[in-house]
Amino acid sequence: MDESSDATENMPQLSLPQRSALYIALRTAAILLAFTLVFTALMAGAYYLTAPRVAASAQVEKLRLLAVVLAPSFHDNDLLKDAITLPPNSALGTSENTRLYRARKNGQPVALVFEAIAPDGYSGKIGLLLAVSSTGQLLALRVTQHKETPGLGDYIDPKKDRNKVRPWISQFANIGFDSVPPEQWHVKKDGGHFDQMAGATISARAVTNASGRALAWVNKNHDKLFALPANSLYQE
Amino acid sequence: MSALNNLSNIAKNGFWKQNPLLVQLLGLCPLLAISTSLVNAVSLGLATILVMLLANFAVASLRALIPYEIRIPVFVLIIAALVTVVDLSFNAFLHDLYLVLGIFIPLIVTNCIVLARVEAFAAKNGLAAATLDGVMMGVGFLWVIALIGGLRELIGQGTLFSGIEMIFPALSGIQVLPADYPGFLIMMLPPGAFFTLGLLIAGRNWSEARANQRRLNQLKQAEHPGDKPAENMPPFTA
Lengths: 236, 238
Prior knowledge:
- The complex is a heterodimer.
- Chain A has helices at residues 3-10, 21-69, 201-227; strands at residues 83-86, 98-105, 108-121, 124-133, 137-145, 175-176.
- Chain A is α+β, with helices and mostly antiparallel strands.
- Chain B is flat, with a radius of gyration of 21 Å.
- In chain B, helix 4 (71-93) crosses helix 5 (95-101) and helix 8 (127-157) packs across helix 10.
- Chain B is built from ten helices and two strands; from the N terminus they run H-H-H-H-H-H-H-H-E-E-H-H.
- Classes of the chains: A alpha+beta, B mainly alpha.
């Protein structure tokens, strides 16, 4: 070490202005480090204390969401355990791994519940959750996340839809390609079957087209999706 | 100045004289994002009060330990840690409330009013004064964002309290304007927040200017009781 650090050690404690820049810098850095350690410990402690409860809440939340598209009476297996992982898939619009849940009753396939993404919403991606029966019917469709304009395009989410009796999204309940063929699976404005709200077609079009693509893909791969062992990775 | 007087001044500053949104113009980012409805605005306001209370309390009690040169990184550290702890605790122990307020809590970190009050007030004042300042600045933020949220919701989509069923399932939003009200889109988009805030600031400045003029007139009356009130006095010229 050089002279200046020696000098600091021999100096009386109270003559602050004479302390070297090095001493002050080190002391300040040490205080900052101490604050960082204390507050990081605080955050880590809070994380460890709350992690089990947060995970339990997330599980409950997931089940609640699954129950919205597929009534629990439809199946007798544990959906969260009987699930497989889907890699990114262009038909579903996903760019990350997603989970696909398989509902069975008495060991027989009943329905598949899975996520899809409509990439072409008015303000970015729209997350969807679909339940498709083994007979190829779309049982229910819900929007899980979106950034559509409040009061305009957000009617795709039944919570925001002003029509509480027959929200827009309820058109997609118990409907399949047997009653609405794939070439008709569009909004009315595009010459298809499904209604949209005047002035806010883009959100409805994105959801409608994405659900049609997802339904076609799942129907095509239905048997393979049910045959895979639980927790395995699906491959094309 | 007595201690009580001082505390009442702090309260008045947060609520009106130094109102964070109307005078200091801080916290515009969450204002734009969240003031689309009354319920959202009040939710964010409540979460902000909680975080400002904790942040000002923590900084006022630790201020003797914080060197001046590194105060900003330390303040940021304290605020971020507190927000994280509040976020995790809500998620774990008040999960139903978290589902409603949850998305707002991390947003508070982007609200510079928290850092501004910590730096301008809590770092220089005692515990009680700093805590009160945090709460009252939060209250000042709350009432303005609630007013803007209510106005935007009413003019933009003709309703009030929409979304309240997410907090109180028994209640539901009110359709204030006729059901066939076409809506006024620009009020729901970010420019609507700027227009509304601009009008509120103008209104506040107007009322302050009137109050000042009245005070001036009273002063003049006291000095020259014979004069008639200077209602339309020309501007002062040298």
